[in-house]
Amino acid sequence: MSENFPTPEMLPRHDYLTRVMHWTIVLAFAFAACSGLALFHPALFFLANLTGGGPWSALLHPFAGLFMAAVFARFALPLWADNRLEPRDRQWLGQIEDVLAGREDRLPEVGKYNAGQKLLYLLMVACMALLVLTGFLIWRRYFSGYFPITAVRLALVCHAVAAFALVAGVIVHIAAAAWVRGSLGAMMRGKVTLGWAYKHHRAWFREMLRSGSGR
Ligand code: HEM
Fold this sequence. Notes:
This protein is mainly alpha-helical. Helix content is 64%, strand content 3%.
């Protein structure tokens, strides 16, 4: 049976291409983050041991970043519609204590992504865009010479701020994936159980059953 159709016990959540792109982004992110942090401060230079040493890190960091951003753009674009903020997201955020205590029955029904996932998605999109934009300005070998030094310095600060925000966002994202049991399976195998969907994303669960009800 195609992975795009629900089975009696499982619902499809992420197709094969989406999963391959996600894990490709993870590898590129790990390389870009380690090489970038190694270049950022001598105290973090030990991270260059993971990315081929100082010269290789400096040379490859911008290419790894561009590759990550390009795959991310292709990955994130189709997710845009499901990550638009809706009125019920405000209520979900207002009940953050219930979220953290796992009292999901008190929350409004959640669509494919909850408000926390949507905010992280938007943070990732904004950080990626800012990193690419400022990355060109501070890429001394090819581009910095075309810009005034003040713009390059400002870009350097923005690049560092965006990188820290992205790293912090990814740490929260990983913690959330570990916290909600069953989510990792969604990104590894592409499927979730009916129980997982009903518990965590009930509005999406109903939508999936409706759209599969013709079978
Ligand atoms: C080891 C690191 C990571 C783990 C374990 C992980 C895990 C996951 C999981 C389990 C999902 C599916 C959530 C669901 O279906 O509800 C997901 C979705 C997603 N991941 Fe990751 N991820 C990692 C790193 C990253 C990185 C580095 C990025 C981008 C910089 C990223 C961006 C996304 C996005 C945008 C989604 C879709 C969520 C949405 O659209 O709101 N992930 N990830």
